[in-house]
Amino acid sequence: MFFDFPGIFTQREVAEIEKLKKQDALTLQEQKLLEILRNLDYGEMRIVVKDGAPVHIEEIKKSIKL
Prior knowledge:
Number of strands: 2
Shape: elongated
Distance between the termini: 58 Å
C-alpha cells in the first residue's frame, strides 16, 4: 500500500495503483513457466500460448544437423 506518505495520493489514485499492481501479478501458468525456464541449464523449448497465456511447453530433446 502507498500509505507511507499520507496526503500525497488521493484514495482514487491509490485504488488505481492497486488495480494496476493486480494486473501485473503473474498467473499460475506464468509462474510455472518461469520456474521451468530457470531450471533449464541449456536447450530449447517451444511454448504454446492461448489467449495471451502459456498453456503448453515442449522441450526439444533432440536436434540433428546434417
